[in-house]
Amino acid sequence: MLDSQDVKALRPDALTPSEIVSKAITTGETKANMPFLQVFMLSVLAGMFIAMGGMYMLFMKSDPTIPFLATQLLGSFAFLLGLFLVICAGAELFTGNTLLICAKMSKKIAWSTMFKNWAIVWLGNLVGSLFMVAILFFSNFWAINGDAVGNAMITVATSKIAQPWHVIMLKGIICNLLVCLAVWIGYASRTVVDKFFGIMLPITAFVACGYEHCVANMFFLPMGLVMKLSGFNYIGSADISQLDVFGIFYNISAATIGNIIGGAVLVGLVYWIIYAKKASQASS
Question: pTM of the predicted model, to two decimals?
Fold first, then answer.
């Protein structure tokens, strides 16, 4: 005989919104209490996975003969690879881990524990991203299609820096609102197919619309800078003078703050208030 927990686990339908919040709380508690080495290694993997999505996107965007709309749609679908790997293969992504706020608000973890997790995951994501930058540069990935991929690397990186700081931050808010909604849907899903189609629209929307994801930018911006410093013969029209270490910090600082607001506040905190605040107050 199956007990109630077994029956619940075997349900073919997705979790309800209130069940998603409960899962976010327990998942957040588990993530926050993992050993340092496990968290860091999974974070490095996430940085590599997102960079793989960025790699695929740059390949799609490297053909100048494809119209803008088609390029954006193809590139956004290619980038989906990154989050799909994070959710299905298992990895720790900073932007998704902003949802640890649910566990914090339910008093399952301390503020210090949450911020420590965020710091470790952010740094691990950066290491994984830079590792992929090195691999792709030395493997001559940039030379595909007559150096067209290399030109796309520099063009994409430059476009992300050449914006006011507050614009990048606001784009970061919208970006992680969509990313964390994708993760939220991933929590609700029970099969790999469900997860793929569930995350597809939010992720392709944020990429196609040009919003700012701090972990993706840990790949795009260093990749563009490495190409610039290598002496690559860039033939695009973008002004590459701002593509330097300061420009990378300028973008990623704004994107990180925006991502925290979009994920922790507009998704995690809002849904926690709607579905879990009363339960938390009653148990305290």
Answer: 0.92
